[in-house]
C-alpha cells in the first residue's frame, strides 16, 4: 500500500486533534509559552476536511469519541485510541529526518475513521475548532484557532512572497559601486556596507504601486502601518543579528519614523506593532484583501515537549504580549523572493527588502 508523505506542520495538525481529544482539556499559556493552571474542559473538536466540518464529540463519561458527519453518527472510538495515536505522531515528528515523511499506522487509522485528507484547504485560515465548557461562566462556546508548532523550526506567522517587499531609495552623493555590491551575498551585507555613507529612504509610492493589495491591507490596520513596518524591516536587515520585535521596537522608538511630537512615543509604536502582529496572526495575507469577518478566535502553540497551549483574543493582553515578546523578523531566500540587490531605475538606486515574521 502506498502511503503519502506530509510535512511536520501537516502532521502537527493531526497531532493537535488527537492530543486534545485525549487530554479533554485546553490549557492556557503565558507570554513565554509556559502552561498556566487555567483550562477549559473540551466537549467536542471539529476537524476541517475540504471545508466540511467533521465533529469529534466526547461521550460516555469522556471515555468515548463519537464521530459525526453532517450531524449523523458514523463511529464510536475509545479515547485511549486517540491518546495512543497522538503519542505515535509526536514520536514520529521529533524523530523525523526529512522535510516530509509518512506514518503508515496513522494513515491507516485515519482511513478507518473516514478522514480522507490531512491537508487543509488553503482558503480556510482556521485550522481547528473546539467546543469548550467555561465552568466559571457556565457557558458552552465554540472557538476556532490557527495552529503554530515549535516541533522543529519555529513557525512563521507571516510568510514571505514576491509581493511582501518594501522598496527603499538609496540617496548618495557618490556613485555606488554596483558590481562590488552585487558580489555581496545578502541584503544585510549590502546595507551594512552602504548605510554609513548613504541615506536609505522608504519609498512609499513605489512600494504601494508594487505590492498593491498588501499595502492596502496595512493601511486597513493603521494609515501609518507601511512606515512602521518599513522601519522594522530596514533595521532588521541593517542592524545587529538580533531581529526580535522587542529590540526592533526599541530602535523604532529612537528613530521615531512617523515623527510624533508626543511623550511616550514608545507606547504608541508598541500598540501599533501589536495591532500588526495580531492581524497577520489571524490571517492577513499579502495576496488577498483583508477581511476580519472569518478570522479565528486565537491560536494554539505546540511546545517542544508536545503540550498544546491556547491564546485567545478574549484574553487580549496575554495574546498580544506573547506575539510582541516572542516574534522576530526573518530573512527568507533572496533568490526565491527576488529581493536584496541594488538596482538602478530612472537615475536612482533602490533596494527591495522582503518581510517574513516568525516566532523566535
Automatic annotation (TrEMBL):
Alphabetized InterPro entries for the sequence: Restrct_endonuc_II_HpaII
Keyword Hydrolase: yes
UniProt keyword list: Endonuclease, Hydrolase, Nuclease
Domain of life: Bacteria
GO molecular function (one): endonuclease activity
Protein's recorded name: HpaII family restriction endonuclease
